[in-house]
Amino acid sequence: MKKATQLTREGRLLEATRILRRALEVPAEAPAQAPTEGARGTRQRGEKITDVAFRELPAQTHERPRSLVPYLDRAGAPQGNFRPATFEAHRFASNRRTYAYRLYLPPRTDDRLLPVIVMLHGCTQDAADFATGTAMNELAAQRGCIVVYPEQLARSNRMRCWNWFEPSHQQLGRGEPAMIAGLAADVVQRCQGDPRRVYVAGLSAGGAMAALVAQLYPDTFAAVGVHSGLPAGAARDVPSAHAAMRRPARTAATGATSAAVVPTIVFHGGSDRTVHPDNGRRLIAEALARASSSGIPLLPREQTVTVAGRTVRRTAYHDPLGVPRIEHWDLPGGSHAWSGGRAAGTFTDPSGPSASAAMIDFFLAQQLPPDAPPPT
């Protein structure tokens, strides 16, 4: 039972459920059918992209585990102020549309305010699949973070891509960015989140939307993480989106950009054939330019990191206090996949350094100033 309790605190509810069922002689459900060949790990396919889909495979179906509370009570788990981790499905209404999202709450023993991380999936993925592939919940359990996974509507994009390339979703107070910022503010208010420590990250189309949301709402998000994505304002329609994905413009992105200095961490594979790696370099260049224009001196520190035989380049730009404000992970040979993710999720590269761990480390070093307005 101690093992089940520990797994629950770490947010690994499915594993804890199996242990408890064995111990309490609860009949197990029939095992899920094994996925077909190619349903796990890194994906690369060569067909033409439609709807600005990033060639990601359909998400797996995940059943939310039954509540562990009755079993833990019987097993003698800690009582009192202890609240076990949960990962549950919810809905959020915005702009006359209702979005599904998953919410991870870490185990708690007190009422302190917790950091909030908003995770934006890529095309054809869903919240459960993205949570599985990134393993963000397990890390959030260790670091005491709330994680929110909003889902794109099929009616808005049939491939479930976030519409980062449409002008109607590139403006303050409108469209998908307004929904994402509003959802973050709602979770902060309802779940004892820390309004000064709210972050947004995403993969591919989700990464492009994360970059956009962070620029539109710099008073809500203290930092942004972009994996295999594009800069804010990189496109204004489908043709320009395809062009930007193939090769970004030499000049800075225009349109949905601002002078806001938002701490930024970028991961991008050097062999990404879906979103050209120059987009990652453009994200870093624009972040550095905004910092320079604001008079913020940054000192670069470059290092090589070897993980599972792969050598990657990490460049961190520190402020005078030694805090990293911009971070670039260049992954030579890396594909269009979440680095260090789990093979159980779609569109992951388990052999790379953990993007999730690096992003959490980077995020928790950032917070909004005390006089920042509350999230909107």
TrEMBL record:
UniProt source species: Ramlibacter agri
Stated name of the protein: PHB depolymerase family esterase
Segments forming a coiled coil: none
Tagged with keyword Hydrolase: yes
Disordered: annotated segments: 26-46
Gene Ontology MF terms in the entry: hydrolase activity
Gene3D superfamilies: alpha/beta hydrolase
Cross-referenced SUPFAM superfamilies: alpha/beta-Hydrolases
GO CC field: extracellular region
InterPro entries: AB_hydrolase_fold, Esterase_phb, Plant_Biomass_Hydrol_Est
Keywords: Hydrolase, Signal
